[in-house]
Amino acid sequence: MSLPRRLAFIDVESTGAHPVRDRITEIAILRVEEGEVVACWESLVAPGQPIPPLIEQVTGISDAMVADALPFEALADTVAALLDGCVFVAHSARFDYGFIRNAFARIGRDFTAPVLCTVKLSRALYPEHHRHGLDALIERHQLVCTARHRAMGDVEVLWQFVSQLEGGFAPELLARAAERAMKAPAQPPGLPEGVLEALPDAPGLYLFHAEPEPPPTGRRDPVLFVGRAQSLRARVREHFGAGARKGRDAELAARVKRVEWIETAGELDTSLRENALLRLLQPPWNRPQEAAEAAFALRLLPGRKRAPILEPVSVAGTDPADWDGLFGVFRNRREADNLLRELALLYRLCPRRLGLEGGNGPCTAHAARRCAGVCARRETPAEHDARLAGALAGVGVKPWPWPGAVVVEEVRAGGLRRLQRFERWCHLGSADDEAGLAALAATPRAFDADVWRILARWLAVPDHLAQVRPLSSGQ
C-alpha cells in the first residue's frame, strides 16, 4: 500500500469554527489498517454550550439532539484508542486536528499524531483543478455522501476518495503526494493548533490578543492589533509567514496568543466596524486614533479687523442640520492649517489674517508677492474675506444627497447581510434585518468626522450607489 498502513479518517462537527472557543458536537472515526476498515464509530458530543442557529441549519445538529449526549471527557478513551498508532486523516485536517487536540488539552491530556490533509492530497494529485473542497470532490469523483455536514457522512466520503486514489495512481506518485500532504505548516508558537486553519476565506476583521484565553468578566482583554482583510485566512497567515520574521512584525507575531475574527458583509461594514474597534480598544500596534470629540469646523468672522478671522467650532456629536456658516471638518489643528496654507497660495490670501503667522505689518507672503496685500493695506479686509469665503465654499461636508434617511444594504456571498442607516452624514446604526433597521429610526443624529469620511469615500464609487435605498419619512 502506497499510503500509510494505519489511517484514521475523522470528522468533527462543532458549535463554530474556533478550535479554542467552540466545542465539538459530533465525532466520527473510520479506522483503516492495510486498506481494510477495522473500526467504525460515531457519537454525538455534549458541547456544554448552545449551538448557534446558523450552525444548526448547516449540520442539522440541535441542542435537543445533544441534550443526553456524553461530554468529550467521557468519550476521550474511545477516541484515543481509535486514533492510536494511526495517521490522522481529515479534510482541512489541521482544523479537525485542532479541535481534537484542544478537547484533550481541556481535560488535561496530551494528543499528537501525524496528520494527512485530503485537501492537500487532492491539490498534489489534481493540480489542474482549482476547487478542492469536499463538495467539489464529491462532484468531481462521483462520490456518494449519505449525510453531508454530518460527521460519519463526511468521513465515508473521504474513505471513498482515498480508495479511488489507490487504483488510479502509481504507488510512488501517491506516496510522494501523501508525503507532501502530511507536511505540517509552520505553526506560530503562541497559537493553539488549528486556529489558522479555522479562519474563513472571507472578508472581515481580525484581532490579535496578548492572552491565550479571554479574561474573567470585568478584566481588560489586551488587544495588540486590529486588521482588516479580503481573505481573513490569507492575511492572518501573512503575519506569521517568512515575510514577518524581522523587526516590529516579528515582535508582534511573537506576542500573539489568541486570534479572534469578525466576518463582515462588505466594504462599508468592514470600515465602520474597524473604526469603532480601533477607537474602543486603542491597540498599541495600530496607528493612534484621533479623538472623535476633537473634530471641529471653521467659522468666518466677517468684518473683524484683527486676526485671526476664523474661529474653530466643535462639530463632534452635533446635528449637521443645525450648522450655519461652517466650513470644513478637521480632526486636528494641523489639518486645518495645512488647508489654509494651500488656499493662501491658490488665492493670494494673507497668512497673518488667517492666523497662520504672527506679528504686525506686511506678512512674509506679501514680500514674496504671494499675498494680495491686506496686511499692507493694498486691499480691504472685505475684499480679502470675500475671496476667502469663496475659497472655503467647496471645502468640507457636501450637502446630503437625499431628502431624508437612507439604508445601505450589503450582502455577501453566503448570505451574510448588514443594513446601515444614515441621515445627513450621521450613522444611526447597523442591523441584520428590517425590524432592527426600523428600531434605529428614533436614534438622534450625531456627527462623527471619521464616519463621514468613510461614507463619503464609499459613495464616491459609482457602483455603490445601487446599494443605497432612500427611506420615507415614516420608516
Concise overview:
With about 475 residues, the chain is of the alpha+beta class. The protein has helices at about 55-60, 65, 70-85, 95-105, 120-125, 135-140, 150-170, 170-180, 195-200, 230-240, 245-255, 265-280, 335-345, 365, 380-390, 435-440, 450-460; strands at about 5-15, 25-35, 35-45, 85-90, 115, 205-210, 225-230, 260-265, 295-300, 310-315, 325-330, 405-410, 415-425, 425-430, 470. The radius of gyration is 31 Å and the shape is elongated.
Distance between the termini: 68 Å
Helix content: 25-40%
**Strand percent estimate:** 15-25%
**Rg, nearest Å:** 31 Å
Task: Return the average pLDDT rounded to an integer.
Answer: 91
Poorly predicted residue ranges: none
Sheet bearing the most strands, described? 5 strands, mixed
Strand order of the largest sheet: 3-2-1-4-5
Number of strands: 15
Task: Please identify the structural class as seen in this structure.
Answer: alpha+beta
Number of helical elements: 17
Instruction: Name the shape in a single word.
Output: elongated
Describe what you observe in this structure.
The model has no long low-confidence stretch (mean pLDDT 91). This protein has a 5-stranded mixed beta sheet with strand order 3-2-1-4-5, sandwiched between helices. Strands 14-13-12-15 form a 4-stranded antiparallel beta sheet. It has a 3-stranded antiparallel beta sheet with strand order 7-6-8, sandwiched between helices. The protein has 17 helices and 15 strands. The longest helix has 18 residues, at 151-168. It has helices spanning 53-59, 63-66, 72-83, 93-106, 118-125, 134-141, 151-168, 171-181, 195-198, 232-239, 247-255, 267-281, 333-347, 364-367, 381-392, 434-438, 449-459, and strands at 6-14, 24-33, 36-44, 87-90, 115-117, 204-209, 223-229, 258-263, 296-300, 310-314, 326-330, 406-411, 417-423, 426-431, 468-470. By secondary structure, the protein is of the alpha+beta class.
